[in-house]
Amino acid sequence: MARRKLVYEGKAKILYEGPEPGTLVQYFKDDATAFNAEKKDVIDGKGVLNNRLSEFFMTGLQRIGVPTHFIKRLNMREQLIRQVEIVPLEVIVRNFAAGTMAQRLGLEEGTALPRPIVEFSYKDDSLGDPLVPEEYIIAFGWATQQDLDDIVALALRVNDFMAGVMHGVGIKLVDFKIEVGRVWENDFMRLIVADEISPDSCRLWDIETDRKLDKDVFRRDLGDLNDAYTEVARRLGVLPKSGQPITKPTLIN
Ligand code: C5P
C-alpha cells in the first residue's frame, strides 16, 4: 500500500491526505503541550479519548444544524474530515473568568461573566497566539467584518450546545476555543467549525466540586490527565460506565 501523504503536523494532531479530493484524515496524537509547547509530555491514550470526544461534540453540533468539518471516525485515533482553509484565529468563548482572562483582569477564577464573551487570538505560535481586536483582524485581512459576525454567531451556537450538554452531565463549561475554516459550495463560501473540540480546548469543571476535568490538569500538575478526560467521556456515555482502560482497542469501536 502506498504511504499516505502528510499534509501538516501540529502539536496534538497530524493531517494526512484523505481518500477523496477535499478530504483529510485527522490523526490524534498522545502528545500534550502547554504554554506554547514549553511543557510537554506523552499521555498514553489521550489521542484516543480526544478522537472520540471530538466526534461526539461535532456530530451533536451537526445534528442541531451547526456545520463542522467532521465526516466520520475511521478508527481509534483517526477521523475523516473536510479540508478547509483555516481562518488564522483562535476563537475563544468564555462563560466564567479563568486562565488568561482572569490573569489579565485580576478576576478570581470562576467569576461568572455578565454574558458569554467571544475573543480572538491570532494563530501564530512564534508570537504566542496574541489576543487581537477585531480591527486588527479586518485591517490585516485575516477575516472580513461579515466573516467575524458569522464566526461570533457560530461560536455562540457552539457555546449554547456545549454548555447544555455539559450541564446535563454535571459539568460547567467555563470556556473553550474553536477554530473555523472556509469551504466553498458552488460559488458560496461557508464558515464551519474545524480542528477539534475536546478537553484539550475547553475548561470543564465539575459543577459540585469545581474539580478540573480538562487540560489545566496537565498545565497545573493537578493529577492524571487521562483520569480527567475519561471521567468526561464516561459521563457523556462515550465510554462504557464500567470504565476499563481506554487504551484497550476493544473498547473503542
Ligand atoms: O489560556 P486561555 O485562558 O486564554 O484559554 C481559554 C480557552 O481556550 C481554554 O479553554 C483553553 O484550553 C483554550 N485554548 C486552546 N488553545 C490555545 C489557547 C487556549 O485550546 N492555544
Structure, explained:
This protein has 253 residues and is of the alpha+beta class. The chain has two domains: 6-84 and 225-236, Phosphorylase Kinase, domain 1, CATH 3.30.200.20; 85-206, ATP-grasp fold, B domain (D-amino Acid Aminotransferase, Chain A, domain 1). The protein has six helices and 14 strands. Strands 8, 9, 10, 11, 12, 13 and 14 form a seven-stranded antiparallel beta sheet that branches. α1 packs parallel to α6 (225-235). The two termini are 24 Å apart. The structure holds cytidine-5'-monophosphate. Cytidine-5'-monophosphate binds next to β9, α2, β12 and β14. GO terms for molecular function: ATP binding; phosphoribosylaminoimidazolesuccinocarboxamide synthase activity. Keywords: ATP-binding, Ligase, Nucleotide-binding, Purine biosynthesis. Its EC number is 6.3.2.6. Residues 7-235 form the SAICAR synthetase/ADE2 N-terminal domain.
Jot down its keywords:
globular; 253 residues; 6 helices; 28% helix; alpha+beta; SAICAR_synthetase_CS; SAICAR_synt_PurC; seven-stranded antiparallel beta sheet; D-amino Acid Aminotransferase, Chain A, domain 1; disordered C terminus; five-stranded antiparallel beta sheet; Phosphorylase Kinase, domain 1; binds cytidine-5'-monophosphate
- Helical residue percent band: 25-40%
Distance between the termini: 24 Å
Strand tally: 14
Number of helices: 6
What is the percentage of strand-forming residues?
25-35%
SSE order, one letter for each helix or strand: EEEEEHEEEEHEEHHEEEHH
Question: CATH H level of the largest domain: which superfamily?
Answer: ATP-grasp fold, B domain
Cα radius of gyration in angstroms: 18 Å
How many domains? The number is 2
CATH class label of the largest domain: Alpha Beta
* Principal-axis shape: globular
Low-confidence stretches: 245-253
Query: From the 3D coordinates, which CATH architecture of the largest domain would you assign?
Result: 2-Layer Sandwich
Mean pLDDT: 94
Identify the bound ligands: cytidine-5'-monophosphate
Largest sheet data: 7 strands, antiparallel
Structural class: alpha+beta
CATH topology of the largest domain: D-amino Acid Aminotransferase, Chain A, domain 1
Domain SAICAR synthetase/ADE2 N-terminal: 7-235
GO molecular function, one term: phosphoribosylaminoimidazolesuccinocarboxamide synthase activity
Family: Belongs to the SAICAR synthetase family.
EC number: 6.3.2.6
